[in-house]
What we know:
By secondary structure, this protein is α/β, with parallel strands linked by helices. The protein is 35% helix and 30% strand. It has a single domain (5-154, 247-373), classed as FAD/NAD(P)-binding domain.
Amino acid sequence: MAHTFDICIRGAGIVGRTLALLLARERLRxxxxxxxxxxxxxxDVRAYALNTASRTLLESLRSWPDPEHATAVTRMQxxxxxxxxxxFDAATQGADALAWIVDVPALEQRLAEAVRYQPQVEMVPAxxxxxxxxxxxxxxxxxxxxxxxxxxxxxYTQHAIATRLACEHPHGQIARQWFLPQGILAFLPLDGADGxxxxxxxxxxxxxxxxxxxxxxxxxxxxxxxxSQGALxxxxxxxxxxAWPLQQAQAARWCGPMAESGKxxxxxxxxxxxxxxxxxxxxxxxxxxxxxxQALAAVLxxxxxxxxxxxxxxxxxxxxxxxxxMLPMSLATDGLQQLFSRPENPLQALRNWGLRGVxxxxxxxxxxxxxxxxxxxx
Length: 378
C-alpha cells in the first residue's frame, strides 16, 4: 500500500533532518529524500559555530552532540592587521558560552539516529508526491533550478580552506580570528575544554588556493603558524585540506506553487543554503539555516486547522520573516568582507580604527555579542 505524505523534504543534511523532526512533532507525515551514496564519503573536516538558539533547538530534538564533540567557546579574540583587536567574553554576557564549536559528523550522526526512531519520518531514495516540498539541498540545489527560481549570486574573490590542526598549546576554549592582508583566518576549538585541536577556516584569494593545497603538510602548518602569530605554538596538520569558493547569494523567491492535481494544491518552499549564502567570517551560516527550519515549523504549527501546509499565505509569511531576519547579518558579513579584503592604506586605517572603537564601546560590543549568540531577542 502506498504511503501518503504531507511533506517531502529534498535534502537530508542538517537543516533537512532538523525540519523533518520538527514537522514530525506536528503529526505530519514526512518523506526525507536521501539518494543512495555512490561512494563512501571523504573525511569531513568541517566544524560549525552554533549559538544558543541553535543549541536549544537541537536539544529539544535530542540531537545535541556529546560534550567532546561540542566545545564551548568561552572567549573570542578578533585581531586586525595593525595591532587592533576586539575581545569577547562569555562571563561578561552572563553566559556559559559565546558559542559551541560542533563537529559536523557527530551532529549528523545524532540527527540521523533521531530520524531513524521517528515513525512519522520515512527515508526515501527519490522525491515523492506531497502537498508541500521543502528544498534543503544546499547552495547548488538542482530542485531550485528545476522550479525556475533565480538565485542571485555575488561571488567573492576568496575561497575557504578548511582543515584540522593539533596544537602545542591548549586552545583554552578561545575562538581566534585574524583579519590579515593574506586573508581571514579562524581557529575554532575542538575536543572539549582541555583540547589541543582546532578546526581551521582560512579565507584566501583564489590564486593562493592551489599553492596552499599543494604544499607539503609541514609547510602548510608553518604558514598557519606564521599567520596565527604563534598563538598556539607548534602546529601539526592532522586532517586533509578542503577548499570551496565563497559567495553571497539569495533566492529571489523562497516559495511558490508547483502544480495542481484536481483540487489539491502543491507548493514548494526553500530553507537553508538553498535559500541564502553568506561569507563564513561570522560563523552564522548554519545558525541561519536552523532558524529557517524553526521559523517554517512555527508557521505551519500556527496555521488554522482548515489550512493546508501548502497554503502560500503561510509560506510567504515565513519568507518575509526570514528575509527580514537575514538582512542585517548579510549586510554585516558582506561589508566586513569588502572592508578587510581591500589593501588600500586608508581602508586599513579605517578598519583598524573601527575594531579599536568596538573594543572600547560597551553597548555596541554587547550588541554584537548577543547577535552572534542568538540571544538578542531574549
